[in-house]
């Protein structure tokens, strides 16, 4: 049995649906931009009436929403949420489903090491994340070119897009680690939503309180689109921390999976 092919086919339909949804949300947001930019002065006056804490929470205090990159940076928070939910769900499901569907006993009595099971599973779901990102990259450039109101910084735009992959990689790794020791997980969706929205709330607190320590507690803080827009780069400490933590999650998940007891059917 080719585990990689099986897992890839298992999640193919789901990936298609989520990717189409992500691109649809992207075009929905970007289609509003021409109307918004044409009334930028009026919109900025309206925003001035909002409390500073509200503007900080949603990353609207230090960026110009009248430019493609500034507006895209604001909208990207919701793109990251959708992509993050998909990645976390994949990470949790690809391991836990064997126990939930009572197929782990069958799979692991085959002449295969546990490493030869978990590694192809990870590669299959990682490939789905990569495919989603490639399609989204292309779609975002097309959308920007269609709806732009002038020249924009392509480097900054692409860095914002690239942050989607890093956020998804972090949540995929975390999901796989959690699933290795949660033997009674009946449904992955409640935990997925709880974790991802929990990270989102932490990011709102981070932006409101302007506390750098909180930014390290959430992947949305590691790749803050407002920071990327203002600096045309990632925050190096946050990037290194995020990748190191993602790799740690994968290593821990690998170790736990290889050592845990698999209940018999």
Short synopsis of the structure:
With 265 residues, the protein is mainly α. Helices cover 79% and strands 0% of the residues.
Rg, nearest Å: 20 Å
How confident overall, as mean pLDDT?
A: 87
Helix count, DSSP H or I runs of 4 or more residues: 13
- How many domains? 1
Shape: elongated
What is the helix/strand order?
A: HHHHHHHHHHHHH
Describe the structure.
The chain crosses the membrane at residues 16-36, 69-92, 122-144, 156-176, 188-205, 239-257. One of its GO terms (molecular function) is ABC-type transporter activity. It comes from Oceanirhabdus seepicola. This is ABC transporter permease subunit. By secondary structure, the chain is mostly helical. It has one domain (3-259). The protein has 13 helices and no strands. It has helices at residues 3-10, 12-38, 40-47, 52-57, 68-100, 104-108, 115-147, 154-181, 188-209, 212-215, 219-222, 225-231, 236-259. Helix 1 packs across helix 7 (115-147), helix 2 (12-38) packs parallel to helix 7 and helix 5 (68-100) packs parallel to helix 8. The model has no long low-confidence stretch (mean pLDDT 87).
Topology:
Blueprint: H1 3-10, H2 12-38, H3 40-47, H4 52-57, H5 68-100, H6 104-108, H7 115-147, H8 154-181, H9 188-209, H10 212-215, H11 219-222, H12 225-231, H13 236-259
Keywords:
265 residues; mainly alpha; 13 helices; transmembrane helix
């Amino acid at each position: 049995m080719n585990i990689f092919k099986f897992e890839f086919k298992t999640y193919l339909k789901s990936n298609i649906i989520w990717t189409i949804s992500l691109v649809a949300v992207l075009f929905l947001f970007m289609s509003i931009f021409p109307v918004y930019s044409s009334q930028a002065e009026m919109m900025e006056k309206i925003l001035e009436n909002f409390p500073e804490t509200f503007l900080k929470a949603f990353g609207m205090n230090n960026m110009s929403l009248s430019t493609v990159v500034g507006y895209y940076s604001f909208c990207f928070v919701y793109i990251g949420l959708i992509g993050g939910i998909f990645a976390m769900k994949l990470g949790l499901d690809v391991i836990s489903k064997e126990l939930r569907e009572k197929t782990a006993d069958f799979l692991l009595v085959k002449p295969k090491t546990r490493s030869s099971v978990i590694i192809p599973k990870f590669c299959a779901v990682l490939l789905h994340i990569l495919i989603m990102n490639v399609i989204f990259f292309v779609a975002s450039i097309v959308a920007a070119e269609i709806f732009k109101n002038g020249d924009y910084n392509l480097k900054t735009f692409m860095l914002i897009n690239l942050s989607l992959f890093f956020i998804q990689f972090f949540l995929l790794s975390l999901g796989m680690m959690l699933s290795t020791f949660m033997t009674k997980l009946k449904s992955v969706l409640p935990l997925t939503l709880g974790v991802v929205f929990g990270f989102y709330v932490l990011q709102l607190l981070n932006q409101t309180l302007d506390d750098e320590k909180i930014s390290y507690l959430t992947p949305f803080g590691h790749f803050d689109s407002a920071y990327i827009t203002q600096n045309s780069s990632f925050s190096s400490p946050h990037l290194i921390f995020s990748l190191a933590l993602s790799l740690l999650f994968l290593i821990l998940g690998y170790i736990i999976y290889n050592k845990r007891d698999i209940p018999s059917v």
